[in-house]
């Protein structure tokens, strides 16, 4: 077995590999760019080597710098994680030439499966179902339009190399095909150094279901069931689960056997994933093979008990698989929620900055449930604009799907993140969505259920009433403490009342509260009674309460006269008034937000790639105005209506913050 391995990656996946290596008694080497000098993976590793400036194409994907780090530290093997160099055959070959083991598949398998065009041809030859498409290279935008028309819209335009949703566009018209080709080609060149593009038929209303495979260099290969990855945004997975709520045993077996057949066709040895799209009749079609560890591998580990990173290391060391297909079962249900540094209230655009608060729920494991959080950040750390916006993967396991969802709800309620925009509210909202709960999901779930973007969840009346009672209890606790201030005049002790009116987004909830320490008895105007128990004290940012046996967990920020409460995807401004003050508050005017309709504001922190208009130009609804790049994704900003450009406030190459003005209109 290896004595020392280098992890050619960063963030969450580097930390994940270090944990398993440590468990196996293997020393680890981290590499880092200038932006990651204080990163968690650097702190966790036994050694760390600086490899260059923040941009990945000057550090993490420069093979020569990785080789130099290997030589300097004496590492015997390299784990590439996912992304970066993980699917670069030339990297695996360079390691082999240097006498260093690659903890991944053979270079020949990477080359065959990493190229989506070649992989589809090989899949067809191996008897795997494939999607209709054009497997040749596309010359230019005009050629892309011609091919798309021949296949029939809608089509998927995809980069031949890479993954993670980059270099992918869906086109429904000739215009979208032309623009999608240009954007996919540009993103692919920037992210992967390979701008080859191909086009295939886009299957409408599909599910994205993938099969985990594991092989060794002795000809053994097994599959470890499937993962449902249909909850996606911009072709990037957001929530995954294992097993799929849609597959039956026969389909699972057929997909697994085809995945193994494909792996054996290229002499695959290591962990890998064969991705399929599945229609409503359980017909499945090969999508691609990822010749690396997947981001969502923890859910497979949770239902099988197999440490995939450990197996990858053992296979790379020449060991035979100790598992057979008969050893692989399905034990319970697991769900993964990806925590992204993206603002759901701004159409999920990237957010960067410092994590002023980062408190994940406690990890635990028992026969009735488990919580696991794979992360690469810490409180006080900075989210960089140079890398992928995912900062953690929160996973829950339970004996069945319903309990796994309930566990995820509770874990998300307890997850505290401040300082950046993040998608925790959206993840919480999905866990309560009837369509997700039923399992009736497709890759169009987010687009169909949130067509206007995410604006926060609407909570049911019963839950709002519970939150009103909780806010009143916290207010009384705060008032009672304030009443005990020392130095008060004799016989002038402050009295805390019983009658309160709680307003949630200006809707009143009158109640009577008889409070005694950590317990309050609540009486509603209709005579209904409730008992609330809560050990919250002023200053705590998380309130845990039981209201008539129901658990309510809310994130708390103090406001003048009340609180900001965040719970289950809702972000609420809650005020607590005496009845007299409530009557006066109803007469107060509502402050309106400033009018920004005459400005094009930068929706995310990023780099201006280009400005498409000039001062004096007349623009029309839908016209491209500018392009901003953030976290390797190119975002085209378009006009919402007809207007005339009065002033151009930014230019190509400018680094902008959120809401910086790009254009001003007349």
List the helices and strands and how they pair.
Blueprint: E1 4-7, H1 11-23, E2 27-33, H2 40-44, E3 47-52, H3 63-73, E4 77-79, H4 89-97, E5 101-102, H5 107-114, H6 116-125, E6 133-134, H7 141-151, E7 155-159, E8 168-171, H8 174-192, E9 197-201, E10 207-215, E11 221-233, E12 236-242, H9 249-265, E13 270-278, E14 284-290, H10 297-304, H11 308-316, E15 333-340, E16 342-343, E17 349-350, E18 353-354, E19 357-359, E20 364-365, E21 370-375, E22 382-383, E23 390-398, H12 401-414, E24 416-418, H13 424-431, H14 434-438, H15 445-449, H16 461-483, E25 499-504, E26 507-516, E27 519-523, E28 529-534, E29 542-547, E30 550-559, E31 562-567, E32 570-577, H17 579-585, E33 599-601, E34 606-611, E35 618-619, E36 624-630, E37 633-638, E38 643-648, E39 655-656, E40 661-665
Parallel strand pairs: 1-2, 1-4, 2-3, 4-5
Antiparallel strand pairs: 6-9, 7-8, 7-9, 10-11, 10-13, 11-12, 12-15, 13-14, 15-23, 16-17, 18-22, 19-24, 20-21, 21-23, 25-26, 25-32, 26-27, 27-28, 28-29, 29-30, 30-31, 31-32, 33-40, 34-36, 34-39, 35-38, 36-37, 38-40
Helix pairs in contact: 4-5, 7-8, 12-13
């Amino acid at each position: 077995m290896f004595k020392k391995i280098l992890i050619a990656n960063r963030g969450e996946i580097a930390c994940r590999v270090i944990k398993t290596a440590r468990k196996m008694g293997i020393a680890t080497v981290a590499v880092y760019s200038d932006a990651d000098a204080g990163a968690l993976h650097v702190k966790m590793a036994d050694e760390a080597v600086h490899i260059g400036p923040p941009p990945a194409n000057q550090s993490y994907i420069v093979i020569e710098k990785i080789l130099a780090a290997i030589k300097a530290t004496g590492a015997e093997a390299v784990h590439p994680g996912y992304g970066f160099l993980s699917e670069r055959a030339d990297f695996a070959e360079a390691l082999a030439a240097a006498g260093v083991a690659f903890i991944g598949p053979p270079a020949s398998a990477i080359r065959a499966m990493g190229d989506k065009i070649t992989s589809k041809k090989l899949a067809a030859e191996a008897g795997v179902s494939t999607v209709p498409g054009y497997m040749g290279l596309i010359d230019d935008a005009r050629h892309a339009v011609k091919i798309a028309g021949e296949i029939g819209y809608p089509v998927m335009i995809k980069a031949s190399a890479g993954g993670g949703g980059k270099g992918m566009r869906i086109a429904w018209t000739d215009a979208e095909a032309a623009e999608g080709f240009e954007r996919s080609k540009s993103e692919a060149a920037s992210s992967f150094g390979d701008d080859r593009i191909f086009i295939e038929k886009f299957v409408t209303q599909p599910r994205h279901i993938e099969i985990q495979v594991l092989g060794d260099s002795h000809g053994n290969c097994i599959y470890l069931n499937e993962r449902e990855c249909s909850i996606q945004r911009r072709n990037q997975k957001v929530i995954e689960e294992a097993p799929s709520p849609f597959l039956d045993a026969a389909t699972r077996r057929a997909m697994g056997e085809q995945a193994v057949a494909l792996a054996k066709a290229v002499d695959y040895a290591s962990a890998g994933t064969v991705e399929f799209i599945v229609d409503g009749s359980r017909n499945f079609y090969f999508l691609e093979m990822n010749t690396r560890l997947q981001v969502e591998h923890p859910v497979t580990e949770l239902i099988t008990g197999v440490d995939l990173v450990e197996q990858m290391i053992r296979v790379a060391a020449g060991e035979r698989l100790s598992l057979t297909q008969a050893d692989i079962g399905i034990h319970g249900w697991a769900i993964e929620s990806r925590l992204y540094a993206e603002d759901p209230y701004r159409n999920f655009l990237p957010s960067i900055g410092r994590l002023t608060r980062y408190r994940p729920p406690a990890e635990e494991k028992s026969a009735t449930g488990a919580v696991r959080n794979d992360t690469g950040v810490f409180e006080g750390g900075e989210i960089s604009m140079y890398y992928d916006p995912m900062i953690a993967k929160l996973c829950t396991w339970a004996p069945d799907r319903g309990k796994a969802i309930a566990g995820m709800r509770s874990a998300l309620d307890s997850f505290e993140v401040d300082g950046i925009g993040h998608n925790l509210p959206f993840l919480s909202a999905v866990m309560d969505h009837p369509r997700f709960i039923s399992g009736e999901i497709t890759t169009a779930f987010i687009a169909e259920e949130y067509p206007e973007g995410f604006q926060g969840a609407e909570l049911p009346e019963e839950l709002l009433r519970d939150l009103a009672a909780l806010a009143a209890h916290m207010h009384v606790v705060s008032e009672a403490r304030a009443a005990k201030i020392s130095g008060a005049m004799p016989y002038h002790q402050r009295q805390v009342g019983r009658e309160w009116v709680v307003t949630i987004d200006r809707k009143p909830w009158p109640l009577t509260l008889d409070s005694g320490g950590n317990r309050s008895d609540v009486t509603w105007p209709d005579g209904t009674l409730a008992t609330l128990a809560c050990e919250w004290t002023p200053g705590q940012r998380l309130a845990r309460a039981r209201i008539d046996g129901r658990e309510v967990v809310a994130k708390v920020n103090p406001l003048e006269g009340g609180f900001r409460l965040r719970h289950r995807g809702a972000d609420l401004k809650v005020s607590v008034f005496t009845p007299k003050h409530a009557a006066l508050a109803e007469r107060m005017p509502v402050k309106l937000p400033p009018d920004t309709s005459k400005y094009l504001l930068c929706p995310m922190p990023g780099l201006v790639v280009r400005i498409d208009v000039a001062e004096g130009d007349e623009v029309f609804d839908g016209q491209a105005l500018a392009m901003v790049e953030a976290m390797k994704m190119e975002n085209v900003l378009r006009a919402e209506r007809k207007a005339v450009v009065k002033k151009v406030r930014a230019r190509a190459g400018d680094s902008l913050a959120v809401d910086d003005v790009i254009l001003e209109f007349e």
